[in-house]
Structure prediction request, 272 residues.
Amino acid sequence: MENISDSELWSRIVMFGEAARKWRQKFLGLLPEVARRELWRVHGFESVFVFAFKVGGVSEKQVRMVLGLEQRFIETPRLHNLLVKGVVSVNKLARVASVATVENQEMLANQVQLLSQSAVETFVRDVRSESTVLRAQKVALENNSHIVQEFELAPELVERLNNLKRKGVDVSELLTEFLDKREDEIAQVKTDLVETSAPSGRYIPARIKRIIAREYGTKCAIPHCSKPSNEIHHTARYSMIRNHNPNFLAPLCRQHHEIAHSVDVKYQECRK
Prediction:
C-alpha cells in the first residue's frame, strides 16, 4: 500500500466509497422486511436497531427514518419501490415524503434519481410554493380581493410618489408607463442583438449577459426563488440552435439549473 501513488490511493478511496454507499442503500431498503419478519429476533439480536448497527453499521436514527418512510410510501408505490430496492438515498426520499401524493409520485421518483440532494430540496420547495400560491389565489378569488406582493421603497422615493399623488398624478399609471417603457427598451435591445450577433462558441458574449442582467437582476429567474443566479440557462438547447439568442436565456441558481437540465434529460428519453 505504501508504494502506490497519491492519485491511485485517492481513486481507490472514491471507488470503494461509492460502492459502500450503494450497498448501504441496498441494506437500508431491506430493513422494513427484516422488521416485518422479525429476522433480527430469529438471529439472536435484541432489536432491529441492534441488528442494523452490528450487521450494517447503521444508526438507530437511520433505521427509524427508513421504517417511517416505508409506511409513508404505502400509497405511493413508485417511491416505495425506490426505497425497498435501495435505488436512491434515504435522505433524498425523506426530502420528498412531505409533498408526495399518488398524483405526483411518478414525477418525484424521476427527479430523485436525476438530481443531487440540494437540487431535490429546491425542487420540493418549488412544489410547496406552487401549492401555496394556488391556495392563495383561490382564497383571493373567493374573497374578491387581490394578492399584494410586498416590497420596500426608499423613503425619498415614497415621498416623491406621495407628492405626485397629492398633485393629482395617477401614480399607478405613471409606474405602469415606466415599466412598459423599460420592457420595450429591453425587448428592442434583444432584437438588435439577435440581428447583429454572429454565431459564436459556448461562451456567452458580455453584451448579451448585460441585457439578461438588466432584465432579470441578480436573482434566479424562477418565481419565489431568492437565490443568486450563477448560471445562464439556454431554454432552447444550445446544441440544437448554436447561438445565444437572449430571448432563450434565463439566469438560474445552481439548483434550478440542475433541475432544468433534469427535465431536458427526461424529454430526450421520451423521444427515444
